[in-house]
Amino acid sequence: MLRIAVVGSGPSGVYTAQALVQQRDVPGVTVDVLDRLPCPYGLVRYGVAPDHEKIKSLQNSLRAAMEHPGIRFFGNVPVGDGPRGLAPRRLLELYHAVVYCVGAATDRRLGIPGEDLPGSFSATEFVSWYSAHPDALPGGFALGDARSAVVIGVGNVAVDVARVLGRGADELHHTDVPDAALGALAESRVTDIHMVGRRGPSQAKFTTKELRELGTLPGAETLVRAGEAALDPAWADPGGLPAAGRRNVEVLRDWAERPPAGRPRRIHLRFFLRPVALLGDGAVRAVRFERTVPDGRGGIAGTGEFEDVEAQLVLRSVGYRGVPIAGLPFDGELGTVPHAEGRVLRDGVPSPGEYVAGWIKRGPTGVIGTNRSCAKETVASLLADAGALAGRSPVTAEEAQAALRAAGRQPVEWPGWLGIEAAEAALGRRLGRGPVKIPDWAGLLSAARAGG
């Protein structure tokens, strides 16, 4: 019988645990899913936009997997060398194997002057705020002080934050946005949202479904500058593009031909602009961009022409990045743990009992479903090693649980998580809404204690 620890309870962690307990080649496998947060589901809970109810409903299938009798959940358990965490070497004393599914927890930076001016944030920080992540910025976002916002990036996260800024608070009242964030959005004076990419429409990373949603907002209109977008060689004839790129260009061309509708908010989709500096004295007031052009080799070249776009709020959305876990090897350039088919490599050699899956394995690529095939590859490697793993002598399940409790925090088990869910439903009822997320550590842990 193998006892496995899976570190991380987002989709990659849940799919890994599910694949382990459902396989039939190695009988009696049990899994403890550990998470630093008291809540499961990772970015499905804390990264999916609140108005994407269909995607958020994926929590139902993740819940079904987590309720398998061979899986236990232990939230509020930090992992890593340090006074509050379980070190990787200690986890290997508690389990036959450990699979790290910790995702990519931070954002990439632009590396330009003024990036740290007040008013400049990562899109990750903004998403954490409206998603009620307990580590979100304590002061939140004072949107009443901004008239113009610049979102740097043209991926799905950039579309999400532009769409949330473009919605009225009434449109988000039925969602689980925390009450303080909903109030700030109600006070927002942002009328212009600029979503800016350094390349052309055919190279944008957003999906057509996400893009089209921008055109359905009742209080905002989407504006595309045809002359700017036409710098893209595929603008006139997108037929040679892959299907996703072709559909994106077709949507954008349609918007470029529409006359302005005069709605109270405007989402400007800008292309071929590379940020070179954030401008301001004490706070950001504009973003300076350099005009770019295609270089004929699939890249871009600067033109030496510059444009300043007014902004009191700047959100960079240029990609996620993995964070090292103290005690595990880490590739600082790729932001991943070195591995071979999911087996962690230490000095180029597979480390017995240590595995990775998800973004910390492959980088922040793919969609939620990509994590399933990624998890299956790692689980196949682990099961191929089952004979050697079974020869290891970890402590008993009860001793492992006691070690978790001794890690410096009180673990939140599944009944505690159900207590959080119940408390969020009760909070929503008091506010005349559906379930509303609890946004702080103290509130989450109090609800977990009441439920557990």
Quaternary state of this entry equals single chain
What is the count of DSSP helices, taking H or I runs of 4+ residues?
18
Spans of 5+ residues with little confidence (pLDDT < 50)? none
What is the gyration radius calculated from CA atoms? 23 Å
Placed side by side, the strands forming the largest sheet appear as 3-2-1-4-18-17-16
Tally of DSSP β-strands: 18
Strand-residue proportion: 15-25%
Structural category is alpha/beta
The averaged pLDDT comes out at: 92
Distance between the termini: 28 Å
* Bulk shape: globular
- Percent range for helical residues? 25-40%
Largest sheet: 7 strands, mixed
Write the layout of secondary structure elements.
Layout: E1 3-7, H1 11-22, E2 30-34, H2 43-46, H3 53-56, H4 58-66, E3 71-74, H5 88-94, E4 97-100, E5 106-107, E6 120-122, H6 123-130, E7 148-152, H7 156-166, H8 169-172, H9 179-186, E8 192-196, H10 208-214, E9 220-224, H11 226-229, H12 243-256, E10 265-270, E11 273-279, E12 286-294, E13 300-310, E14 313-316, E15 320-321, E16 339-340, E17 343-346, E18 349-356, H13 359-362, H14 370-384, H15 386-390, H16 397-405, H17 414-430, H18 441-451
Parallel strand pairs: 1-2, 1-4, 2-3, 4-18, 6-14, 7-8, 7-14, 8-10, 9-10
Antiparallel strand pairs: 5-15, 11-12, 12-13, 16-17, 17-18
